[in-house]
TrEMBL record:
<dbReference type="InterPro" id="IPR012338">
    <property type="entry name" value="Beta-lactam/transpept-like"/>
</dbReference>
<dbReference type="InterPro" id="IPR001460">
    <property type="entry name" value="PCN-bd_Tpept"/>
</dbReference>
<feature type="region of interest" description="Disordered">
    <location>
        <begin position="1"/>
        <end position="92"/>
    </location>
</feature>
<dbReference type="Pfam" id="PF00912">
    <property type="entry name" value="Transgly"/>
</dbReference>
<dbReference type="InterPro" id="IPR023346">
    <property type="entry name" value="Lysozyme-like_dom_sf"/>
</dbReference>
<protein>
    <submittedName>
        <fullName>Transglycosylase domain-containing protein</fullName>
    </submittedName>
</protein>
<keyword id="KW-0511">Multifunctional enzyme</keyword>
<dbReference type="InterPro" id="IPR050396">
    <property type="entry name" value="Glycosyltr_51/Transpeptidase"/>
</dbReference>
<feature type="region of interest" description="Disordered">
    <location>
        <begin position="507"/>
        <end position="550"/>
    </location>
</feature>
<keyword id="KW-0808">Transferase</keyword>
<dbReference type="InterPro" id="IPR001264">
    <property type="entry name" value="Glyco_trans_51"/>
</dbReference>
<keyword id="KW-0328">Glycosyltransferase</keyword>
<keyword id="KW-0378">Hydrolase</keyword>
<keyword id="KW-0645">Protease</keyword>
<dbReference type="InterPro" id="IPR036950">
    <property type="entry name" value="PBP_transglycosylase"/>
</dbReference>
<feature type="domain" description="Glycosyl transferase family 51">
    <location>
        <begin position="179"/>
        <end position="355"/>
    </location>
</feature>
<dbReference type="Pfam" id="PF00905">
    <property type="entry name" value="Transpeptidase"/>
</dbReference>
């Protein structure tokens, strides 16, 4: 049905066609019959109150029908989409909807099971007794909450990347040349060992005593934790119940404070560590970090402290005793008290029996361990102080240098340093110096207050066998054997002689070098002026330079061989000038003296202005005994770290002078010893060579001699260390030519001559 609409009217009923002013009709479909037509086209107000539009067909209003203007045609417009809600709003709405749904579903059940407490329908005390449902619900809720708490705690527990200082720090042990322990250094007495180096019987002794289920438990023990809790409530402190994994966690990550929080953290870390590391790795770490008493951490140091041997040499019986110490060394070290001995033996027997019970020791083997393995009375590695600390200091310097170990790495410890030091020679040398020191204090107490004795024995292959560094390293860290503070005096003459034999002498500027031999003759008179090709040698003050012989003695024309044997200073001052002071310095350095200790290139060089140490003087004299080959002095045979050898530089001999030159100097030194000490020389059968050394101002007295391919140098001097390093006159403490204190020490320090 269609209706005719008047031009100026509005249909009184909803029509399907509308007549448009100006002519024509518009068909309106039923689907948009409820949408007003474009009022702009009529110029009138629509029944809905929309503003009319002009008849020119301008842009449709937002309320225009969808089909009034075709898409893409002028006046067309896209609909705007409603904005999406924010993510947080969507999540909130979803949670709210879910909660509503859960409440709607579970609400009736929750209302039904909701506990009413105190219980209704009961009177008196019965109102306060929970029902079985309430009790069961509480238990179930507690269980769920506990599981949830433990799960979260396990998830958030981390294993630290760094171990604590006690777990990483080790000590360094020094050994004598024969392999026996000499001393140790480091604030933690510990050395790491691989598990394979620990005998299986020793491992199982520890496991039997501490945690027999170690290889099957998850890192914690429910029984142990329960026992610990019961003991805690009973005695008021956290005790026992720890597996080896927990003890290892405590050793390397935590502290030993007895608190519930520490125990809880320990258990969580133990569970996590058990999943991260193998059982063998945990056991190895535990054995290397546990405290065994006597200042020791780790089973290797414990074996050395209680039995004087490496852990690899222990048997099951000794291992059972060391396992007892894990309960508390202060209670089980049998050397501390009789009660400790009783406890230690009881625990030792129990551990061995336990090993039999768990099948790790046969009854026959157990029967062989009936006697308690008595440990040493004291820790042999604690023998430090006095001379051993001087040895440690010297060996440490050489170890770092030859093995190329940085200070930082060496301070971490864990090294085993095998030295060249001969314990017998050290004892003899220490005894000899001690006797001389006591005599000086008795005879000259005032002068002896500042007297020093440096000494060193060096083999021809470079090994330093013994030194004397001072009265006690803890009182005087200054090492007298390695000091370069006093002149060598006439003990330097052999190097001048060797330089002349090697290079010859020049008597004039234009002539070439002339060879010399031991029979070459020089003037040996006292105070003979030194000459050069141009004439006398003048010092800076304008005075002629001349040497002085001991006692003002003149020898006339004397052979070089005899001049060395008699220590004629004037002969060697002129010989040095003729040879060339540069060649004298080069020869002395090639023979083993340090360049930094050599004197200035002036005539006084030939009379011993150089200041070598006792070690370097002994090393220099070995060059003559070694047929002209020199090996740098060293103190280290080998260095290992935790059982693995460390690569190091090994000194090798090198040619310092011709073999004939060395042989002639050694021959002259043999005659020097024979001349000075004929009776001793006769007993030695000509196998000893040596020479005394004196200085012009009497600031030092030396004796350097070689016996059995070992050169020993001894020097006596006075220095007030509180004031300066300037040498003081000896005031008779060096003895006389006939009764030399350095020679007395030298002869007493050596093994019987011959």
């Amino acid at each position: 049905m269609q209706l005719r609409v008047p031009e100026d009217g509005i249909p009184t009923t909803r029509d399907e066609k509308l007549q448009i002013p100006g002519g024509g009709w518009r068909q309106i479909s039923d689907e948009n019959a409820d949408i007003p037509s474009n009022a702009e086209e009529t110029g009138r107000t629509s029944p809905t109150g929309d503003s009319p539009a002009s008849a020119s067909g301008s842009r449709a209003s937002p309320r225009s029908p969808a089909k009034a203007t075709a898409p893409g045609q002028p006046g067309a417009r896209r609909r705007r989409k409603a904005p999406k809600p924010a993510p947080a709003d969507r999540v909130t709405a979803a949670v709210g909807a879910a909660t509503t749904a859960v409440v709607a579903v579970l609400g009736p059940w929750l209302r039904r099971v909701r506990p009413y407490y105190p219980r209704p329908g009961r009177t008196g005390w019965k109102r306060w007794v929970p029902s079985w449902r309430q009790t069961g619900g509480a238990v179930l809720a507690s269980f769920v909450l506990s599981v949830l708490t433990l799960t979260v705690a396990y998830a958030v527990t981390d294993i630290p990347d760094d171990l604590n200082s006690y777990a990483t720090q080790q000590d360094t042990v020094y050994f004598w040349a024969d392999g026996t322990p000499m001393a140790r250094a480091g604030w933690v007495h510990r050395q790491e060992m691989e598990l394979d180096d620990v005998p299986e019987d020793v491992r199982w002794a520890v496991l039997a005593a501490e945690n027999e289920s170690f290889y099957s438990d998850p890192g914690i023990s429910a029984k142990g934790l329960t026992r610990a809790i019961l003991r805690t409530f009973g005695q008021g402190s956290t005790q026992g119940g720890s597996t080896i994994t927990q003890q290892y966690v405590k050793n390397v990550y935590l502290t030993h404070e007895q608190t519930y929080s520490r125990k809880f953290t320990e258990a969580m870390m133990a569970l996590k560590l058990d999943n991260k590391m193998s059982k063998d790795e945990i056991l190895e770490g535990y054995l290397n970090t546990s405290w065994f008493g006597r200042g020791t951490y780790g089973i290797q140091r414990a074996a050395q402290a209680y039995y004087g041997k490496d852990v690899s040499e222990l048997n099951a019986s000794e291992g059972a005793f060391l396992a007892a110490l894990l309960k508390g060394a202060g209670l089980y070290d049998p050397t501390l008290s009789a009660a400790n001995r009783t406890r230690a033996e009881e625990r030792w027997r129990w551990t061995l029996d336990r090993m039999v019970k768990i099948g790790k020791l046969s009854p026959e083997e157990r029967a062989g361990y009936r006697t308690f393995p008595k440990p040493l009375e004291s820790n042999p590695l604690y023998n430090t102080g006095e001379q051993s600390d001087y040895l440690v200091e010297l060996a440490t310097q050489h170890a770092k240098k030859t093995a190329h170990i940085s200070d930082k790495d060496f301070d971490r410890g864990g090294y085993q340093v095998y030295t060249t030091f001969d314990k017998k020679r050290m004892d003899q040398l220490t005894k000899a110096v001690g006797a001389a020191r006591d005599k000086a204090r008795k005879d000259e107490p005032g002068a002896a207050k500042h007297v020093h004795y440096g000494a060193a024995s060096v083999a021809v292959d470079g090994r330093i066998l013994a030194i004397h560094g001072g009265p006690d390293h803890r009182k005087q860290g200054y090492n007298e054997s390695n000091a370069t503070t006093v002149p060598a005096g006439s003990a330097f003459q052999p190097f001048v002689y060797a330089a002349a034999l090697e290079h010859g002498v020049r008597k004039s500027r234009d002539s070439g070098p002339v060879p010399v031999t031991g029979e070459t003759v020089y003037n040996g008179d006292d105070k003979v002026p030194v000459t050069t090709p141009e004439g006398p040698y003048w010092d800076r003050s304008g005075r002629k330079v001349a040497a002085k012989n001991d006692g003002g003695r003149s020898y006339g024309q004397i052979s070089l061989h005899r001049a060395l044997a008699s220590s004629v200073n004037t002969t060697f001052m002129q010989l040095g000038m003729d040879t060339g002071l540069d060649k004298v310095r080069a020869t002395a350095q090639a023979a083993g003296l340090l360049h930094s200790s050599l004197g200035a290139q002036v005539p006084a060089l030939t009379t011993g202005s150089s200041t070598p140490s006792a070690i370097r003087m002994a090393s220099g004299y070995t060059t003559f005994a070694a047929e002209g080959r020199h090996t740098e002095p060293y103190t280290i045979l080998k260095v290992t770290r935790n059982g693995h050898e460390v690569a190091m530089d090994t000194p090798v001999p090198r040619r310092a002078m011709d073999a004939d030159t060395a042989a002639e100097v050694q021959s002259a030194l043999t005659d020097a010893f024979r001349t000075a000490y004929p009776e001793t020389a006769a007993k030695a059968g000509g196998k000893v060579a040596g020479k005394r050394g004196t200085t012009e101002r009497d600031t030092a007295a030396w004796y350097v001699g070689t016996e059995k391919k070992v050169s020993t140098a001894v020097v006596v001097y006075r220095i007030d260390l509180a004031k300066s390093l300037e040498p003081l006159p000896l005031e008779g403490l060096g003895g006389t030519i006939a009764d030399s204190v350095p020679y007395s020490i030298w002869s007493e320090a050596l093994s019987p001559l011959g």
